[in-house]
Amino acid sequence: MANELTHRVVRTNGIDMHVAEQGSGPLVLLIHGFPGLWASWKNQIAELAKHGYHVVAPDMRGYGDTESPTDPTSYSIFHLVGDLVGLLQVLGHQQAFVVGHDWGAVVAWHLCLFRPDMVKALVNLGVPFWPRSPNIKPKTLRQKFGDGFYISQFQEPGRAEKAFGLYDHLTLMKKFHLIDKPDLIAPPGMEIIDFLDTPSSLPAWITEEELQYFASKFQKSGFTGPLNYYRAMDLNWELLAPWQGSKISVPTKFIAGDKDIGFHSFGIKDYIMGSDFKRCVPNVEVVVIDGYHFIQQEKAKEVTNEILSFLANFSNV
Q1: What confidence category does residue 218 fall into, taking pLDDT thresholds of 50, 70 and 90?
Q2: Contact partners, residue 273, CB within 8 Å, separation at least 6
Q3: What is the band of 140 on the pLDDT scale with cuts at 50, 70, 90?
Q4: What is the pTM of this model?
């Protein structure tokens, strides 16, 4: 029934994609990031469905019960956006509201860039749209931040997988979810996963059972797929050259947690709060709330209310 959470596998863009869905009405796609799953949106799914939306939350390519190609070139931004375009077609919708977090926000930005006709409105969390530099490839991050930078370490096939393999999957999920986000620079020669300390207790916003669910799915699918998003960054830089200087025209709400490490790194806060972000995304509303990186889980009610209030401007719900 539409009022119950259901699961199915659909064929899109050449892969089998697992989706969770609930409700009926205007379509809302919820796009998770690293290291997430459809369940990252558990609270939003139920509430949005209750308010009259058809909510669909996929496991993205490489995650959970969705297919996980091993070749990093299969994780280009064209592949990731293509998966969502195909998903909309399978669902029988020409347009959707889209909500993204972390890498899901990156994919959602580019869905809006490539196919603005398919997005009624966008709510993105944590990661802003960043204009493509005409001269600086992502690989130069290693030159700027060194080998200890987590994105640098993620580039080398097998390196992060080997480090992750030193831990059981439940411990890994605690490390990733409870230390905010691993936007850290490790000392030279130290693996990023070894540089993280695991907290001794869980915060109120996530349970041991929830983390165990995540752990069971990553134990099945592994980390190569999710890490391939990072390994395709240089390829994406090359592919995105035709969109150099393009803007996001879709109406957007951007939500950031004021304690998110990413918000305070690499000049992102100044970029978001200044005029540059507005120039790249002219129809953006910026909301900064009290919280960390996994804000849709930590501050579920507040984030859901922000989503609902924004979507209501563009629908009859």
Answers
A1: very high
A2: 286, 288
A3: confident
A4: 0.94
Q: 56 with 64: CB under 8 angstroms?
A: no
> If you average pLDDT over every residue of the chain, what do you get?
91
Residue 42 is assigned to a structural domain of this protein: yes
Residue with tokens 């006709």: 117
Q: Flag whether 294 is in a domain.
A: yes
Q: Which two tokens stand for residue 129?
A: 């749209």
- Catalytic residue list: 102, 230, 293
> What are the φ and ψ backbone dihedral angles of 280, each rounded to 5 degrees?
-80, -30
298-309: average pLDDT: 97
- Residue 1 is assigned to a structural domain of this protein: no
Reported confidence tier of residue 200, pLDDT bands at 50, 70, 90: low
Please tell me whether residue 153 adopts helix, strand or coil conformation.
Answer: helix
Give the span between the Cα atoms of 97 and 269, in whole angstroms.
26
Residue 25 located in a structural domain: yes
Domain range holding 148? 6-314
Sheet strand arrangement including 15-22: 6-12, 15-22, 54-58, 27-31, 96-101, 119-125, 252-257, 284-289
CATH code of residue 156 = 3.40.50.1820
Structural domains of the chain, count: 1
